[in-house]
Amino acid sequence: MSAADGAIAPPGPDAGAARRAERAAALRELPNWRVVLEYDGTDFEGWQVQPGARTVQGTLHEAFARLARGGPVAIFGAGRTDAGVHAEGQVASVRAATRLGADALHRALDALLPRDLAVRSIEPAPAAFHARRDARSKLYRYRLWTGAARSPLRERYALRVRPPLDLAAMERAAAALVGTHDFASFRAAGGAGRSSVRTLARAAWRGELGGELCFEVEGNGFLRHMVRNLVGTLLEVGRGRCSPESIPELLAARDRSRAGPTAPPHGLTLVRVDY
Length: 275
Hints:
Elements: H1 15-28, E1 32-39, H2 56-68, E2 73-77, E3 86-96, H3 102-112, E4 117-124, E5 137-145, E6 159-160, H4 167-175, E7 179-182, E8 197-207, E9 212-219, H5 226-238, H6 247-253, E10 268-274
Parallel strand pairs: 3-10, 5-6
Antiparallel strand pairs: 1-3, 1-4, 2-3, 5-9, 5-10, 7-8, 8-9
Helix pairs in contact: 4-5
């Protein structure tokens, strides 16, 4: 403020950082909740809040904001599922200004959330708990329907693929993905920045041809579109367009254009997050 005219000076360059630090400090004083979510991702534009879009994080935030009566709310997800991707066990850490206990909070959220998003469980979490940073592994499942006839009940949750498919070749190719590798060839085109090295503890097919076939993959982290790109590549193997023995070469190439197409999102489900 100027002593001469009493005008308010514009905030200094550190004003924004100071406000953010103040808000973060206030949030740390609020109860921390571990929330396990289930959702049908068909009508969501993914997890992360986006202007003008219906997202899982945004919808959950609206519900907590009503319960907090205008108080601060902060929500962090274990992973950012893409538009159309589902979850059986997405985990979020939520800080919100509410005095409700876990049972009452669960009932209130059930009443506020839409039919395609539900809280499976909610419990108090340690102050330091963070859904993303503390996650140790995630399990994803990609469903295929390989039956001769259409299955209307699976339309939203499984990709229809018509045989023939060489399942034995797909299994050998999946096994070659297990371990610590650079998965740059399976990262969304244009993705860059952080390391593309990930460790997969499991990559395997379950089910049988002529029915439902599932690819299950568990690892310490996943790149954007990584699971869908893996599935698209494994289907190329199953169709005989590349061999299972080409997987190590694809990994070594670190070139997205060398791998298969991106499988559609609706077959993918985040099953579980482990801590």
